[in-house]
Design goal:
Length: 368
């Protein structure tokens, strides 16, 4: 239907009573300012009012298709029942009845705040009158799909997905021509065209058929691996000369990459030991310097005994830490060499090593 040809009856329902005078439009675009200034800016409110005025003028002139864009943008900028009721009317009048009636129901469900302009009350009355007219024109469509068990079909209505919860249930739908499409992996796409009259109830059933060109993949049989021209061609052996199944030997898989975790752990201990030994050695050296000044001719007075014990303790701990660090570094290097050169030939024993630390010594033992 062309804009401006909505018909005398429909156009009369959409026009403001008494004509689209400036006073009526101003009342229809009255806004209640938000209680908090930060909720919406003054510029947004002004822009919403200007868009609403243009949209209402277009709607009163019977040009609802052009008015919808203006009214929708005004509603997004600043919600008001005076805008939403006109937007719902225009959407329903241009065939988008389901969407339009939902806009009208929202106007009726909202509470009118205290101090609202009279236009808000008039908007509720207008929404109720329009809803009484348009809700009788909503059509109802039931979509049923016949599919094998465990199949999850994708259902589309006019290019929009239909939730699985709406299958086999009455779905509110705009009157007119519609296209139902159903698809699923491994099945042929099924389509059906349906034409709904105003207020009619209709059902459509589709069945998915297996795709004859689809290839069934056996998960137990691996797919062939394509070979390049550089791959060596293996001569085919006649089936009569093939070895029995029990005598066949599958090609050994590629070995996994070497595990270097132990090497990194050993190197970490080695570095930590070396750092600890250095710190303790420095403490021992500092304590010895202090004792050299306090103990002339290597004779320390009794009050320096604690300092002397601390220096000796730092020295011993530093030696042990250096031993652990050296063992860890050595073991880490050995593990790295073993990991990089690791090979498995039949069932030959693997080389191994481990570190040991005692109160008097540290080192590495193992087989190589």
């Amino acid at each position: 239907m062309a804009d401006g040809d909505l018909g005398t009856e429909r156009r009369s329902r959409l026009r403001v009573r008494g004509g689209a005078t400036s006073a009526a439009i101003l009342a229809a675009t009255s806004f209640v300012l938000p209680t908090r200034a930060e909720e919406v800016g003054a510029a947004d409110i002004g822009a919403a009012r200007a868009l609403a005025v243009e949209g209402i003028k277009l709607a009163d002139a019977g040009k609802c298709r052009e008015a919808i864009d203006k009214l929708a943008r005004a509603e997004r900028l600043h919600h008001a029942p005076t805008i939403l009721v006109r937007l719902g009317e225009c959407r329903a009048a241009t065939g988008r009845i389901v969407e339009g009636t939902e806009n009208l129901r929202r106007v009726l469900q909202e509470q009118i705040p205290a101090g609202s302009p009279p236009a808000y009350v008039q908007a509720r009355e207008r929404a109720q009158s329009a809803l009484d007219v348009f809700q009788r024109k909503i059509a109802w469509l039931v979509i049923s799909i016949e599919t094998p068990a465990a199949t999850k079909p994708s259902v589309m209505l006019d290019g929009q997905p239909v939730a699985s919860a709406l299958l086999d249930a009455e779905r509110p739908t705009d009157p007119g021509d519609h296209l139902v499409e159903v698809s699923a992996h491994g099945f042929l796409k099924a389509t059906a065209k349906v034409s709904l009259a105003e207020g009619a109830k209709q059902s459509v059933s589709l069945k998915l058929e297996p795709d004859p060109s689809g290839k069934v993949v056996n998960p137990e049989v691996p797919a062939p691996v394509p070979t390049s021209s550089a791959t060596k061609t293996v001569p085919q052996v006649p089936r009569s000369q093939e070895a029995p199944v029990g005598d066949r030997h599958d090609r050994d898989p590629l070995p996994p990459p070497p595990d270097k975790t132990h090497a990194y752990v050993a190197l970490g201990f080695g570095i930590a030991g070396a750092v600890t030994g250095t710190v303790l050695g420095w403490k021992a050296y500092t304590a010895k310097q202090d004792l050299d000044q306090a103990c002339p001719q290597s004779a320390c007075p009794p009050n320096q005994q604690d300092q002397l014990d601390s220096a000796r303790l730092y020295g011993r701990l530093s030696t042990i830490a250096y031993g652990v660090g050296g063992a860890g570094l050595t073991m880490g290097v050995v593990f790295l060499l073993l990991a990089n050169g690791e090979t498995h030939v039949n069932d030959a024993p693997r080389a191994g090593a481990h570190a040991y630390v005692t109160p008097t010594s540290a080192g590495i033992s193992g087989s190589f």
